[in-house]
Amino acid sequence: MTFLSRENTAHHAPLPDTEQRDGISSTEFRGAMAALAASVCVVTAGKEQARQGRTVTAAFSLSIDPPTILVSIDSNASLAHIMSAEKEFSFAQLSEKQQATADAFAGKEVPEKRFDHGNWSQWSSGMPCLFDAVAAFDCEVTAEVELSGHRLFAGRIRSMILDNSLPPLIWHKRHYTSVFLG
């Protein structure tokens, strides 16, 4: 680790007293990622009876101009195939009161019953729209990349609903929590 002093001189800080090695098991990596707090989101695509969705924590802002987000979806998931084919998806950052929706879309409910959880409507595009979320977006896929068994989808935001008064649902150390500063 390198840091600069007030004199703009580079100094090398000693590494923490931890074991360093090249081989990292998937269990160890999952443990490290569990320490990374993340917003709980639901990504959906498809229309009418062909709707699919999944809970994700691998999502973030990519660009402000144009407004674009990036989401990661398992390449084998039917949701990834729908998003690739239709070139659109919807996204919702869940509020702390939407744990049941998060659980349903995380696989605790069969795909046919997932949309029974939450207050759903649809965007003018026909994509599913989840109300009562902190933020919800209707997105057009502008790019996708296959990487490490996942597809990264860039979605340009066409429409948005925002409610900053709602506390976000956070996933941290394999548990739901919330952070709300008012």
Automatic annotation (TrEMBL):
- Record domain Flavin reductase like: where: 33-178
Keyword Ribosomal protein belongs to the record: no
> Which Pfam families does the entry link to?
Flavin_Reduct (PF01613)
- Which SUPFAM superfamilies does the entry link to? FMN-binding split barrel
MF term (GO), any: riboflavin reductase (NADPH) activity
Keyword annotations from UniProtKB, A to Z:
Oxidoreductase
Q: Which InterPro entries match?
A: Flavin_Rdtase-like_dom, NADH-dep_flavin_reductase, Split_barrel_FMN-bd
Which residue intervals make up region (Disordered)? 1-23
Does the record's keyword annotation contain Nucleotide-binding?
no
The record's annotation in PANTHER family points to: FLAVIN REDUCTASE, FMN REDUCTASE (NADH) RUTF
Q: What is this protein called?
A: Flavin reductase
